[in-house]
UniProtKB/TrEMBL annotation:
It holds the Pfam family TIR. SMART domains: TIR. It comes from Stegastes partitus. The chain crosses the membrane at residues 32-55. SUPFAM superfamilies: Toll/Interleukin receptor TIR domain. The keyword Flavoprotein does not apply. This is TIR domain-containing protein. Residues 69-213 form the TIR domain. PROSITE patterns: TIR.
Length: 239
């Protein structure tokens, strides 16, 4: 009797062990999966701009091969000394010298004696992006800036492969937005310049702006900017 009882108890222990082991393995597997999903979510939440730029640089289409545009970016801005300094030294300098874009600026690239109206329309039509530097003085500049903005909005509406980018150089009160700017603000993303915080090429401002600009495949400088992302990938592989 005792032997039969011991044998039954042994069989029961073996049965429980055979049932519990897969449950433990399943629980561990689910736990590891949840940790990996949480880690990937955190990485994406923190580095989504870098991931998007990396994806675009690898798989995006270079628009220079699909259209006949002459310029990558036409910059529209208020003609005053402060904003001219920002446009010519900061925006133009980085876009042309660091990122390799072709930039059109009316006051620099137009020929003397030409028609302001037709020259502006021609420049905007020959550009892939219209970059509008939004500031309190933008709407007060009158015909030139509003002509540039209207030409860009009309170009988008007609499907002419032109996109408008709004860069807020200084905050603008709600009543200071003219009708054309209000229309553009509803449909377009606004990239905010934050002074010294935005000066570095690795700042959020330049990353956001590059997402809106035409695709450029990775150069040596661009690859350096993705070192942080590669370090994360290596850590994930070794962990």
């Amino acid at each position: 009797m005792w032997r039969r009882h011991a044998s039954s108890l042994s069989d029961f222990v073996l049965f429980v062990s055979s049932v519990s082991l897969p449950s433990v393995e399943l629980g561990c597997g689910l736990g590891v999966t949840l940790v990996l999903m949480l880690l990937l979510f955190v990485v994406y939440h923190v580095f989504w701009l870098e991931l998007l730029l990396l994806y675009r640089s690898w798989f995006g289409t270079d628009e220079r091969h699909t259209d006949d545009k002459e310029y990558d970016v036409y910059i529209s801005y208020a003609r005053n000394s402060e904003e001219e300094q920002f446009v010519l030294s900061t925006l133009r300098g980085v876009l042309e010298n660091e990122l390799g874009y072709s930039v059109c600026i009316y006051d620099r690239d137009s020929l003397p004696g030409g028609s302001e109206y037709y020259t502006t329309l021609s420049f905007v039509a020959r550009s892939r992006r219209l970059l509008v530097v939004v500031s309190p003085g933008y709407a007060s500049q009158g015909s030139q800036t509003l002509l540039e903005l209207k030409a860009g909005i009309d170009g988008m509406a007609l499907g002419g492969h032109l996109r408008v980018i709004l860069v807020q150089y200084k905050p603008v009160q709600r009543q200071g937005w003219v009708r054309e700017l209000r229309r553009a603000r509803v449909a377009l993303a606004l990239v905010r310049w934050q002074g010294d915080k935005s000066r570095e090429l690795t700042s959020r401002f330049w990353k956001r702006l590059r997402v809106e600009l035409p695709v450029r495949h990775l150069s040596v400088k661009a690859k350096i900017n993705h070192q942080t992302l590669r370090r994360i990938a290596r850590n994930l592989r070794t962990s």
